[in-house]
Structure formats: C-alpha cells, structure tokens
C-alpha cells in the first residue's frame, strides 16, 4: 500500500464542492460498480452533470437540511465524500442512515473512509445503510465499524443491495470539524 504522508482533512461540504464531489462520485462508481451497474450508466457522458445537480441540491435545498455531508481532501484534492441523515426506511429502528460513502480506490486503506463515516454518523447512535451486494470490501469495512446485515435486501437501479445496521458503537465520539 502506498504511503500517504500528507494530511487528510475532513470537513463539511459546501455548495462550491458540488462539481468535484460529482467527479469523485462518478469515478468511485466506475471503480467499484463495474459489473454491478450497466456500463451504459457508468459511461454515460451526462452522468457527471447529473451527479453535480444532485450534489448541488443536497447542499442547498431545504429537503436535505437535516443531512450531514462531508468531504475528505488530501493535497487540496477531493478524494472522498459521505452523506447521512434521518432514516427513510419505513421499518427504521435507528436514528441515522448512511446514504453515501465513496472514497477513491487509490485512497482505500488510508483512514479516509473511517474519517468520513465518523464525520456524518454519530458513533453512539443506532444507524443503518444499504450496500451493494456483492461488494465484499465495503461490507467488510462496515462490519469492522459495527454494522451487521439484518437480512433485508433490495434492488435499486438494477443494483442488488443488502441492509446493514448498527445498534450502537463503543468507538470514540465524532471528531470536530477541522478546517482545511
């Protein structure tokens, strides 16, 4: 694994981050979901613009106000993003749901994923997420952080997913935001 001597910064996302967030989102999908999502979706030339519109809305519209959105940067370059908020699942027994956590493959294993998870999900609160299945690396990451599959599954946009839940965690409390 390549060493990353420069400091990782995790901070709240800002509306001006929408374009680089879209680039990381699309690249992460292409790196992770090839074979799970249709190539026509992953290679659609309109996908970056579509994701940028989504991130602009997520960072500016009232309907997303209760969500926490964070980005991870290294060397002033966005390398990951995460978003969590109130649960949408009707059978939710948890108070937070992780909706997005993407880190570029080159940054896997550097602590960026954990830092993003801690930035958007309170480690002491019950939480849940949906993760692509199969996606053994992501599922192992979430198990390491106290999530377990609860048997629920679904298919969204053609991608099979399983739900993972965490009752609580004994991990340290969420770090305070650091400015970059």
From TrEMBL:
This protein's UniProt keywords: Acyltransferase, Transferase
Superkingdom classification of source: Bacteria
One annotated GO molecular function: acyltransferase activity, transferring groups other than amino-acyl groups
Protein name: L-amino acid N-acyltransferase YncA
Pfam families the UniProt entry points to: Acetyltransf_1
InterPro entries, alphabetized: Acyl_CoA_acyltransferase, Bact_Acetyltransf, GNAT_dom
Residue ranges constituting the N-acetyltransferase domain according to the UniProt record: 8-169
